Model the fold of this input.
Amino acid sequence: MDSTVDIFESSLNLEETHFKEGFDEGYGDGLISGKQEGEQVGLKTGFEVGEELGFYRGCVDVWNSAIRVDPNFVSARIQKSIKQMDDMLQKYPMSEPENESVSDIMDSLRLKFRAICASLNVKLEYSGYPRASDGGKIEF
Amino acid sequence: MEGSIANELYSEVLQSSSVKLDGGSNAVEANDNSYENDPGDLWYDDGSSCEDSVEKLNRASDMDREWQRRRDQFHTLGYRDGLIAGKEAAAQEGFNIGFKDSVFIGYSWGRVRGMTSAMACLPSELREKLVEREEARNKFKCLHESVQSLSTTDALKLFYEDQKRKSSNQEEAEPSSTTIELDLQNPDVSVLKTYSEQLHSLLSEAPLFEETFKIN
Done:
């Protein structure tokens, strides 16, 4: 009877060993595919975030130039808002997607942008995302 | 017949062991198996016992098969768990890599969109002061129109195509023959970059703008 008990102990260990073997193999494959999948998502998100920031940057560039040409182009209050957007854009940590401040800065940028557009009485919208030609589904 | 009984028995064991992988199932297993390991057991007194040696052989190969099946089963279970764990562990790292590869490209493209859009919304006297030559103003307008016709998704597609081309460029190490082919495709390489370059050349024609661009 002792011998049978031993056999089943080893069978139990074998199950663990097989599970562990499978786990390690899966983990290795998971690291590779997880990184690839993450990279795809990162490429898309990075591009979108970059585009939106660049869009605001471009608008601020134009407004700054306009103010330099004609200081009365906008009120002092709006000029202040434009300056604030400028500052936020400069401190936005573009290469640190994990930085906790990014979503707050992006939210403030959007708010300021909308407020400035409303004061300027222009219909300037960040028109990037909505006009997707095919439901936004893209694969590499 | 022998085999079918064994299968029946095993399948129960397998079911119970796959449902609960903890130690609890092992007692059941041990019980079931202990019958089989005893040659003098009741089952073998059912008339077929005269072919004892053949049966033993069959039994041995059944056992082997069974072990293999169980090995595969546990291996698969482990693999599945491992795959999920591995993916979770590596996803953020991959995300960061992808993000950094695209954020600056998106940024320069977005800047073209932003500048041309804001330009189009300026009062015309101001626009005339900023960009003195009418020809340049028209170019701004054209650029704005072509940029507006591209959604973010379209731009993203162009970007993906660029990336793909770049990586296939790196993979193909043979220089002479492939570069010619790639040059042929060049007209639409980096459409996004072309827009950026167009904007820059327009800005260089508009000194007041260029100043702003340099500051940033």
